[in-house]
Design a protein that fits this description.
Length: about 120
């Protein structure tokens, strides 16, 4: 799966996710550090990438409705230090099939992983 890491995440996560078989782009690698959210979002969408971020601007499901994008993972830790982020994402990447999160809004907290999947089309005629 192609993953884009927002600038507010440790670069070490790239290595961890690549060891799990994912292709990972960072904003640093793409020279997008400091760019507005809409440019970061457009880049993730044009690449077909799952965006991993701590930015709450991406949590509004009215704007980022599951199924209308390639996926958002919102990391919300109480104490989001580098070590805590690396440990939590590493643990989640080992325990979950991240590829199943395409098109979803996923919120990762210290103790939970909540996945909001796209609404299923109504099968009634």
């Amino acid at each position: 799966m192609l993953i884009k890491l927002d600038e507010n995440l440790p670069y070490k996560l790239k290595e961890i996710l690549e060891q799990r078989g994912h292709t990972v782009h960072t904003l640093t690698d793409e020279h997008l550090v400091g760019e507005p959210d809409d440019r970061v979002w457009a880049g993730a969408q044009s690449d077909g990438a799952l965006l991993i971020t701590q930015d709450l601007d991406f949590s509004d499901i009215r704007k980022f409705e599951p199924g209308a994008h390639h996926g958002i993972v919102l990391l919300r830790l109480r104490e989001p230090g580098r070590s805590a982020m690396i440990e939590r994402i590493g643990s989640v990447a080992q325990s979950f099939d991240i590829t199943s999160w395409a098109g979803c809004l996923v919120v990762i907290t210290d103790y939970k992983v909540r996945v909001r999947r796209p609404a299923r089309p109504n099968s009634c005629a």
